[in-house]
Amino acid sequence: MINLNSTFQIALRALRVNKMRSFLTMLGIIIGVGAVITMLAVGTGASEKIAEQIASIGSNLIMVVPGSVTQGGLRMGSGSTSTLTKDDAEAIEKECSAVSAVAPILNTGAQVVYGNQNWSTGIYGTSPGILEVKDCALVAGRNFVDQEIRSAAKVCLLGQTVVDNLFGGIDPIGQIIRIKKVPFTVIGILETKGQSIIGQDQDDVIYIPLTTAQKKIVGRSVPGMVRSIMVKARSAEDLSTAEKQVTELLRQRHRTGGNKEDDFTVRNLTQMMQMAEQAAKVMTILLGAIASISLLIGGIGIMNIMLVSVTERTREIGIRMAIGAKTWDIRIQFIIEALTLSMIGGIFGITLGVTGSAILSAVAGWPTIVSPLSIIMAFGFSGLIGVFFGFYPAYKASLLNPIDALRYE
Amino acid sequence: MALLETKKLSKFYCVGDNVVRAMESISVTISAGEFVAIMGPSGSGKSTFMNLIGCLDQQTAGDYLLDGTSIGDLNKDELAEIRNKKIGFVFQGFNLLSRTSAVENVELPLLYNHVAAKERRQLALGALKKLGLEGRENHHPNQLSGGQQQRVAIARALVNNAPMILADEPTGNLDTKTSAEIMELLVRLNSDSKTTIILVTHEQDIAAFSKRIIKFLDGHIVSDQPVVK
User: Fold this and answer.
1) In this predicted structure, what is the pLDDT of residue A351?
2) The CATH number of the domain where B208 resides is what?
3) What residues in chain A have per-residue pLDDT under 70?
4) pLDDT by residue (tens digit) across A151-183?
5) Among A200, A203, B104, B118, who pairs with A196 as Cys (CB 3.0-4.6 Å)?
6) Is-contact A188 A177, C-beta < 8 A?
């Protein structure tokens, strides 16, 4: 076989002869590679975003909410009864072995005042377990202690959004804020969590002891009543066990026998998010597959033009054969030519894909991530297409009979 | 010593149901250093003969030995190698690659003979110089006259040191004066380098430059005589 460098030079010269044609042929590959890279970047960006949100709501999370009740034949929505209590939460923490932390939640919205500033936010009565459940650390101050829960102390933890809106530059720790006119001492500040998957600001919260919420902030008739219980399983593997244990325990505690419907609902949040992540991954593959079709069409374009080229250059092939080109010399020449077309197209395609992804991010605000793997794959794939679609024309060229080829006009 | 030898060499073609006997039972021996002209009207079988001895085609029957090698048994790639190493072609239509400089055209046989790039260039420039084409190395065929193009083609035929040049109507596209120049060049090559030259022509005055004339008619040799000068 003749040396590759010379063959490459021959290929470049042949492609330069028909600049426009070479460019148009390349365009198919450019668009194909560009589309694959952009689509993969959009898909990967979406999956990453979801994964990030999973991390932000806390991992291995189970949510228990009160069930629905039927009143005079009407089935009310989920949470229409108030069957969950602080005692349920405590029992779950004590008795379910697969559970690592529990946080009962009793929440309401309220106006909060500090000095001459005020802000409307969500007030969550809860237990110290909330920080572990939500995988949330404190950036300043300290968590509640059990004693504060028992004594219904007027202390609170603030989310970053609340801090920004009430305090400006002042250090909030130790300051007194008023929630529904009740004074609370700020004892801690939560780390930033960002937006939730549904676009809710997870930093716009105030945590106070559950008991304080029950007595002073949320007026409810049932003592000890909570709106929901958040449960954290020990690990991802323990999630389903924890779910089962919690369900069993609550059925027992609520005396739900036999086939009677549960008066509560257990939701596995992490699982739901993981399904969303899975869906995003499937979407990535789909987008990639659709974009690959355009790459394939680009490859067919190369094959088409190479077939034309072989016909046009029959005489050249004849001359080369007469002076000693062997079967593979001719094949390699045309394969390298197709490969050159597709590889140059691939390089421009990568540029297009990376720019396209950046533009999508900037203009449409979609999170896009161009992974090095997708670039390597797209480039390798375009090379493969060059060889694959270049082979048949090259094969055809090598089958020519030198005498006929020499006489070809 | 015989450079090429054909024994009852025949070539038949099938055209529909008819068998065309393009060449039948040709036995010829040509020694190294000879200058042979092959003549005959079109359809006489001389082109078929040239294709066969040029290893561009293979016989239907008989035997062809080139430098002791029997050609009939070789495959396509082995034929290509023989063409590359043993035969230099000069065609009527020059058959240079367009959009390729003179020196690159001359380099081609070396490329297929795996000669390194640097050496290729040196040998090609040397061959062009020998044929008086100094200064034209980077011209493309369309920038050269017919005579110059044919000299580039001869340089290409010579560059691999092939022992034999096959020239198929090399002066067919040239005017009389240039034809004579080309023929003198071939004569000089034959006498100086002892290169065997086999020439196809139908012009008597071109054939007169050779030392031996073989005449074909209807697929047979009708005469084989030395040229009397």
Assistant:
1) 95
2) 3.40.50.300
3) 1-2, 56, 68-82, 197-199, 220-223, 257-258
4) 889 999 999 999 988 888 888 899 999 998 899
5) A200
6) no
Residue numbers of chain B with a pLDDT score lower than 50: none
CB contact at 8 A, A27 and A345:
yes
**Do A232 and A102 lie in a common domain?**
yes
Q: Which of B34, B77, B69, B9 is nearest to B166 (CA)?
A: B34
pLDDT in tens, B154-201: 999 999 899 999 999 999 889 999 999 999 999 999 999 899 999 999
Predicted pLDDT at A220: 60
Does the distance separating the beta carbons of B156 and A325 come in below 8 Å?
A: no
Contact B113 A325 (CB under 8 A): no
For chain B, the domain total comes to 1
**pLDDT at residue number A367:** 86
The nearest CA of chain B is from the CA of A393 a distance in Å of: 19
Say if strands B87-90 and B164-168 run parallel, antiparallel, or are unpaired: parallel
A257 is in which domain, residue-wise? 82-262
Indicate whether A258 and A295 sit together in one domain. Answer: no
Residue A76 lies in a domain: no
Does residue A102 lie within any of the structural domains?
yes
For A219, list phi and psi in degrees, rounded to 5: -75, 115
Q: Flag whether B106 is in a domain.
A: no
CA distance A319 to chain B (A): 7
Q: Is residue B105 situated within a structural domain?
A: no
**How far away is chain B from the Cα of A354, in angstroms, using its nearest Cα?**
37
In chain B, which residues touch A (CB < 8 A)? 51, 54, 56-57, 76-77, 80-81, 83-85, 89, 91, 95-97, 99-100, 108-109, 111-114, 117, 156, 160
Average pLDDT, chain B: 92
What is the pLDDT, as a whole number, of residue A193? Answer: 82
Chain A neighbors of B54, CB-CB under 8 A: 322
**Beta carbons of B109 and A321 less than 8 Å apart:** no
Minimum distance, in Å, between the CA of residue A306 and any CA atom of chain B: 18
The domain boundary, picked from A219, A240, A262, lies at A262
Q: What is the ipTM of this complex?
A: 0.93
* Closest Cβ–Cβ partner in B99, B100, B113 for A324: B113
pLDDT of residue B16: 86
Residue where one domain finishes, among candidates A262, A291, A316: A262
Chain B interface, best mutation among A323, A333, A400, by max B CB count within 10 A:
A323
